[in-house]
TrEMBL record:
GO terms for molecular function: actin filament binding. This is Coronin. It comes from the Eukaryota. The keyword Repeat applies. Keywords: Actin-binding, Coiled coil, Repeat, WD repeat. WD repeats lie at residues 83-125, 133-175, 176-217. Signal peptide: none annotated. Belongs to the WD repeat coronin family. It comes from Seriola lalandi dorsalis.
C-alpha cells in the first residue's frame, strides 16, 4: 500500500463543520487559583463529566487531586479540599462513564484507587478510597474505563503490563503481557472488544483484551507513534507521532492491516506531544499539542482525502493538558459540539473552550446531534469477561439532560490475600511505599532467612543420619544372606 502524503491547505467542500469555531468561556466561568501539578508526565491531568472537573494538583508528600463541581466556577479557596490518599504523585485520573460520582486514579505508589465523590463535592480532604488496587510492581501511568461494561478498569504500569480489574470483586482478572517497554496510550473501539496501544518500543498494537492476543502489530520506523485513538466504527486508527525528520505528524491506519499507514501527514516542527481527540458523532478530530496554545481540527471521511483540515482555534496561553466534557454535558441550545477544559499552569487556571457550529436557528439541530453513547452500561463486568460484546446504549440529547442514573456503585468487601493472575502472585512483588514499611519488610525477610538457614541445617543433619543408617544396612545385609 502506498503512503499518501497530503497537503492540508483548506480545499473547500460542503461540510456542516467547515465553520466550527472555538469560544473561550468568560473569566467568571473559569476555575481560578488551582495549584495545577508541575509533573512532566505526558498525560492530561484533568478529567471532566457533567457533574465535576477533576484536576491533579501540586502537593507535598504524596499525590492529590481536586474535584470541583462544574457549577462552582470562579476563584478557589487556597484551602480547597483535595483527594489525597496516594503516597506518590498521581499520574492519571478518569471518571467512570456510568457512575458520575466514581473516579479512578493511578500513581507512582504502584496503586490504582477508586473514589466515590459526594454529590455537592468535597467538604474536607478525602483520604479513604472505596477500593485500593495493588497488582503492578512499578508505578502506574495510565488508566482507562471499559466503554460499555460498568465494572471493568484497565491499568498500564511501568512494569510493561496491562491489568484488567473486575471492580465487582475488586481484583485483577487478566494480565496483558505483550509489551517490551512503557505503554504510552490505550484506546478502545466502540464496543470495547478491541484495544489499541502505543508503546515506547515503537510498536503499534491491536489487542483482543480478554485473551491478550495481539491481532495486528506495526513496527513504526518512519512514524514514531506516541498516541493512538480508535476512530469509532470506521475500522480505522489514528496515531500522532514524530517523523524521521523530527516533525510532528499524524497517520491514519486500517485496523485490520497495520503494514503501512493509509495516510501520513506532517503537522509542524514543534516538539510538544500531540494529543488526538476524536468525536465519533461528528467525525471530527481535534489535535492539541502539549505546550501549544492552539487546537487544530479536521473532518475524517472514509474516502480520499480521508483527512480534511477545517480550522484552528488559537490562544496565547499554552496548555498543559485538556479534559473533555462528555456529550450529555454539552449545551445543545448553543450548538456546542465539543468542550475542552484547558489547564493553564502559569495562571493556575482551568479554562473551558467550547467548539460551536454557527447556526441561526434556535431549534434542536438533529443533524449535528445524532444518538450518542449514554450513561447506562450495556453489560456487567461478568458478562464482558465471559465473552459477550455489546454496543453502547444510545441516548438522544434532544430533551437536554437525561434522567438520573439509578445505578449504585457497590464496592466489594476485600480480604487481604494473594492475587494470582496468569500464574503469578502480583502482590508478592509490590514494593514498600514508606520507610517504616521498608524496615518492617527488611526485618521480616531477615527472620525468614534465619528460619530457612536453621531448617537447612536440621535437614543436613537428618540427611547425614539417613546416609549412615543406609550404609549400616548395606554392611549388615551380606552377612544375613
Amino acid at each position: 500500500m502506498t503512503v499518501t502524503k497530503m497537503s492540508w491547505r483548506p480545499t473547500y467542500r460542503s461540510s456542516k463543520f467547515r465553520n466550527v469555531y472555538g469560544k473561550v468561556a468568560n473569566r467568571e466561568h473559569c476555575y481560578d487559583g488551582v495549584p495545577i501539578t508541575k509533573n512532566v508526565h505526558d498525560n492530561h491531568f484533568c478529567a471532566v463529566n457533567s457533574k465535576f472537573v477533576a484536576v491533579v494538583t501540586e502537593s507535598a508528600g504524596g499525590g492529590s487531586f481536586m474535584v470541583i463541581p462544574v457549577s462552582q466556577a470562579g476563584r478557589l479557596d487556597s484551602h480547597y479540599p483535595k483527594v489525597c490518599g496516594h503516597q506518590g504523585n498521581v499520574l492519571d485520573i478518569k471518571w467512570n462513564p456510568f457512575f458520575e460520582n466514581i473516579v479512578a486514579s493511578c500513581s507512582e505508589d504502584t496503586s490504582v484507587r477508586v473514589w466515590e465523590i459526594p454529590d455537592g463535592g468535597l467538604r474536607r480532604n478525602m483520604t479513604e478510597a472505596v477500593l485500593e488496587l495493588y497488582g503492578h510492581s512499578r508505578r502506574v501511568g495510565l488508566i482507562e474505563w471499559h466503554p460499555t461494561s460498568s465494572g471493568i478498569l484497565f491499568s498500564a504500569g511501568y512494569d510493561y503490563k496491562i491489568l484488567i480489574w473486575n471492580l465487582e470483586i475488586g481484583e485483577p482478572v487478566k494480565m496483558i503481557d505483550c509489551h517490551t517497554d512503557v505503554i504510552l496510550s490505550m484506546s478502545f473501539n466502540t464496543d470495547g472488544s478491541l484495544l489499541a496501544t502505543s508503546c515506547k518500543d515503537k510498536k503499534l498494537r491491536v489487542i483482543e483484551p480478554r485473551s491478550g492476543r495481539v491481532l495486528q502489530q506495526a513496527s513504526c520506523k518512519n512514524h514514531r507513534v506516541n498516541r493512538v485513538v480508535f476512530l469509532g466504527n470506521m475500522k480505522r486508527l489514528l496515531t500522532t507521532g514524530v517523523s524521521r525528520w523530527n516533525t510532528r505528524q499524524i497517520a491514519l491506519w486500517d485496523q485490520e492491516d497495520l503494514a503501512m499507514p493509509i495516510v501520513e501527514e506532517d503537522i509542524d516542527g514543534l516538539s510538544g506531544l500531540l494529543f488526538p481527540f476524536y468525536d465519533a458523532d461528528t467525525h471530527m478530530l481535534y489535535l492539541a499539542g502539549k505546550g501549544d496554545g492552539n487546537i487544530r481540527y479536521f473532518e475524517i471521511t472514509t474516502e480520499k482525502p480521508y483527512l480534511q483540515y477545517l480550522m484552528e482555534f488559537r490562544s496565547p496561553a499554552p496548555q498543559k493538558g485538556l479534559g473533555v466534557m462528555p456529550k450529555h454535558g454539552l449545551d445543545v441550545s448553543a450548538c456546542e459540539v465539543y468542550r475542552f477544559y484547558k489547564l493553564v499552569t502559569l495562571k493556575g487556571l482551568i479554562e473551558p473552550v467550547s467548539m460551536i457550529v454557527p447556526r441561526r436557528s434556535d431549534t434542536y439541530q438533529e443533524d449535528i446531534y445524532p444518538m450518542t453513547a449514554g450513561t447506562e452500561p450495556a453489560l456487567s463486568a461478568t458478562e464482558w469477561l465471559s465473552g459477550i460484546d455489546r454496543d453502547p446504549v444510545l441516548m438522544s440529547l434532544k430533551d437536554g439532560y437525561h434522567r438520573p442514573n439509578q445505578l449504585v456503585f457497590k464496592a466489594p468487601v476485600k480480604e487481604k490475600k494473594s492475587v494470582v493472575v496468569n500464574g503469578i502472585d502480583l502482590l508478592e512483588n509490590v514494593p514498600p511505599r514508606t520507610e517504616n514499611e521498608l524496615l518492617r519488610m527488611f526485618f521480616r525477610q531477615q527472620d525468614e532467612l534465619r528460619r530457612l538457614k536453621e531448617e537447612l541445617t536440621t535437614k543436613d543433619v537428618r540427611i547425614r543420619q539417613l546416609e549412615l543408617e543406609l550404609n549400616n544396612l548395606k554392611n549388615v545385609s551380606p552377612n544375613n544372606v
